[in-house]
Design a protein that fits this description.
Helix content: 40-55%
Number of domains: 2
CATH topology of the largest domain: Spore Coat Polysaccharide Biosynthesis Protein SpsA, Chain A
Strand content: 15-25%
Radius of gyration: 25 Å
Distance between the termini: 15 Å
CATH superfamily of the largest domain: Spore Coat Polysaccharide Biosynthesis Protein SpsA, Chain A
């Protein structure tokens, strides 16, 4: 769990120049190449670096592949979670264990080139920035993925008071002070994209060409869940929208009632059972939708009040030695 004690311990042990953090989930085909490429870039910056791989309950042999690198790499640390907690929670766990003065976060699937570390580090050195993050120049994938992504960003731009950079990516280089501030957030159910912005500090985006991996595990359902988590974690606007929609319907229904009453008093009975049926369906659907939105907010309160651990670490492997 991301508590103050762990945070202070991590800060006290911060003797590494650079920490590289990534997560593993169905990542076995990419681990070795990722390790070679990111290590080569890191060595050009400093010899005092560490690589942290967080196994997020991967069902394939990602953990075994990562452990195979430990024998000849004292800078590597592999954190095995007790089960799959989700990409964002695994990321936060890796950052929590990072000891570097700077922390480079990147996905292991090579869609984000590890060589970006060199460019990001150069930008961070000028001292004006605390975070350098990557933004896709254009969305890759099929029509559904492109349009779905565009619609998601449009909805978040409308519904969120916190403006999240459009098409931002996981890859980013963070100062140690920013990384320590980031893990102070205590939400158990959240969207990390919003936390990156909410943490503040001076941040700069750099465009890059993201490769497209057709076998990615980040499918439609997790993307929809991420959108809902983003909205319900950082915005009250849906609740305000429900309030004003209900107020508008109440106002219109009052006007319609007055009109119908006037027609009835004049002896004219307005026909239209179809319009009545349509009104019942519309209002019924709207009521169910509003209850669902309110339910999402209530479920977040329910989850947060349980105070369960953020993630549970099963084992930590470092240079062939097992730590508990």
């Amino acid at each position: 769990m991301l508590d103050e004690k762990n945070l202070n311990t991590s800060t006290a042990q911060s003797t590494v120049k650079l920490s590289i953090v990534t997560t593993l989930f169905k990542s076995a085909p990419y681990i070795e190449e990722f390790y070679k490429r990111v290590s080569a870039v890191a060595r050009r910056i400093t010899d005092n670096y560490e690589i942290i791989m967080v196994d997020d309950g991967s069902p394939d042999d990602s953990l075994e592949k990562a452990l195979g690198l430990l024998k000849n790499e004292p800078r590597l640390q592999v954190i095995e979670l007790s089960r799959n907690f989700g990409h964002h929670k695994a990321i936060m766990t890796g950052i929590q264990h990072a000891r570097g003065e700077n922390v480079f976060l990147i996905d292991v699937d090579l869609e984000e080139p590890p060589e970006l570390l060199s460019e990001f580090y150069t930008q961070l050195l000028d001292g004006r920035w605390d975070v350098i993050y990557g933004c896709q120049e254009q969305r890759n994938g099929g029509i559904i993925k492109k349009w779905g992504g565009a619609i998601s960003w449009w909805l978040m731009d409308i519904l969120l008071p916190t403006k999240i950079p459009s098409n931002h990516s996981t890859v980013r280089l963070m100062s140690g002070s920013y990384a320590r501030a980031l893990v102070r957030h205590k939400e158990h159910k959240t969207a990390i994209g919003g936390l990156w912005v909410e943490t503040g500090f001076k941040q700069k985006g750099i465009q890059f060409n993201k490769l497209f991996n057709s076998t990615t595990s980040y499918r439609l359902k997790p993307r929809i869940e991420a959108l809902l988590d983003s909205v319900t974690s950082f915005s009250e606007r849906p609740l305000y929208i429900i309030f004003f929609v209900g107020l508008a319907i109440l106002f219109l229904s009052t006007i319609v009632f007055i009109v119908l009453l006037a027609l009835w008093c004049s002896g004219k009975t307005p026909p239209g059972w179809i319009s009545v049926l349509e009104s019942v369906w519309f209002l019924g659907g709207l009521a169910i939708f509003c209850i669902g939105v309110i339910g999402l907010y209530l479920s977040r309160i329910f989850i947060e009040t349980k105070m369960r651990p953020y993630t549970i670490v099963r084992q930590i492997y470092s240079n062939g030695d097992l730590q508990h």
